[in-house]
Amino acid sequence: MRILLVDDDETVVKLLTDVLQKQNYVVDIASDGETGWEFIESFQYDLVLLDVMLPKLDGISFCRRLREMKNPVLVMLLTACDTTSDKLMGLDSGADDYVVKPFNVEELAARIRALIRRGSSSSSVVLICGELRLDPNLHEVTYGSQLLKFSRKEYLLVELFFRNQKRVYSCGDIVNHLWAFDDELPNESTVRSHIKNIRRELKAVGAGDFLETVYGQGYRINAAFLAAKNDQLVVNSAKQETLDNSIVEIWKQTKNLTFERLIALEQFISTLVVGLFDENSHQKAIQNAHKLVGSLGMFGFEQGSNLARQIEIFLESDFKSLSHFSVVYQQKIAQKLEPLVIALRQEIEGSAKELINVTNIGEEAELFKPINATILAVDDDPQILMTLRILLEPLGVKLTCLGNPENFWETLISTYPDFLILDINMPSGTEGLDLCRDVRQNHDWNWLPILFLTSCADAETLQKAFINGADDYLTKPIVPKELFTRIINRLQRIRILRNQM
């Protein structure tokens, strides 16, 4: 296996090179994006490890250029940026995985093995403007059923406007976006020639003038196309309202479960006040807090989810490795814990009253092509399963939900899914990690893509997930667009891989 490592941090390069070479990978090293690109043009790689912040050609542009050239090589981004928008930008550029620095080296090695094991593909969101559609994965622009013929630069110029539909671009702006650092820069007449060719092609299929001239400033999308898009959004908003109403209905149906978990935490505090701590009630309190972290986040109760996380951490740390406590000690713990639980109740009750303002879950589904796959989700939290159903079924997913892993193998065989979603902590003594390992060791099922969806975010659990054979890992609460993108990426990759067999 041959890996290209593109990073300008000498310490990171030395560490990763040593680890990868010990695992029998052949590693080529580039300290900037342009040198890395020269390697790409000269050799065939199984994986590119790519720093985001690189001199000469940044990692995002590097990755986009790969996909523009329809190069299917696997790409794992390495970056110090940890926000959701940064991750989505990386995934939308065509990356297959995203690792945040500082990282655990063994965890990274496990993720590399998982990524290479599954094969290579990429997927992107289809962009829409009026009746025009642009597929970044196929590098195609269509008007209705007609495929438009653009040169590479013309396609990139159209994509630039698609991704920035209200912006005016001067000729200089276009050059800065579409020509690489070491390319021979064109003059304004070259840009105008590309604009002219785009207009001619669109006119030939009856699409009208997609780009209009803003005199003295540059070019932008014709307002008529944006109006057509807005008309479509009116229809989509009706679908969105239906989705939001469905989320409200899920809350109405399952809110008692949320309050039961909250009451259980309050009762645990009561046992501490009178000095009646026992390990079983302690473990149940941890489980209830853990489930509240994920389920509250699903409904948009972000502050409530954060409070539940604090309670979970508190319960795990203050009782760690101790089995017997004095009454005084238990009462002190109760005094620290009680304000958090009171605040959690207030947050849940307040957020529930404003639920109509917090549910935009599912709006991203309108931007995606149908997934049209069979997916099996195993999670003992009914709120999570119901939310997955609301998110995925509009995309054509046939979703089977399993709340107890006891019948896992029977359900797996009867549904024959294309994709598996697992939680890590489940009842009946069966861990999601065990199920993942068993699937990977089963000759008939070791091809199945596996995504962990869990509230566990610690590095040790993450490493165990990949060691046991996971393909991907998302922490609750769900970010819909990231969930869709990761599922689509994995499904397309495994389909390409199996078609080649």
Describe, in plain words, how this protein is organized in 3D.
The radius of gyration is 26 Å and the shape is globular. The chain starts with a strand and ends with a helix. Helix 13 links the parallel strand 12 and strand 13. It is 53% helix and 14% strand. The model is unreliable at 120-124, 230-243 and 356-367 (pLDDT under 50). Helix 5 runs parallel beside helix 16, helix 9 (223-273) runs antiparallel to helix 13 and helix 10 runs antiparallel to helix 11. Strands 2-1-3-4-5 form a five-stranded parallel beta sheet, with helices on both faces. A five-stranded parallel beta sheet has the order 13-12-14-15-16, sandwiched between helices. Strands 6-7-8-9 form a four-stranded antiparallel beta sheet. The protein is of the alpha/beta class and 501 residues long. The chain has helices at residues 10-22, 33-42, 59-68, 84-92, 105-118, 152-163, 171-178, 188-204, 223-273, 279-298, 302-317, 327-353, 382-392, 408-415, 432-441, 459-467, 480-499, and strands at 2-6, 26-30, 47-51, 74-79, 97-100, 127-129, 132-135, 140-143, 146-147, 211-214, 218-221, 374-378, 398-402, 419-422, 450-454, 472-475. It has 17 helices and 16 strands.
Short description:
This protein is an alpha/beta fold. It contains 17 helices and 16 strands. The strands form 4 sheets. A 5-stranded parallel β-sheet has the order 2-1-3-4-5, sandwiched between helices. A 5-stranded parallel β-sheet has the order 13-12-14-15-16, sandwiched between helices. It has a 4-stranded antiparallel β-sheet with strand order 6-7-8-9.
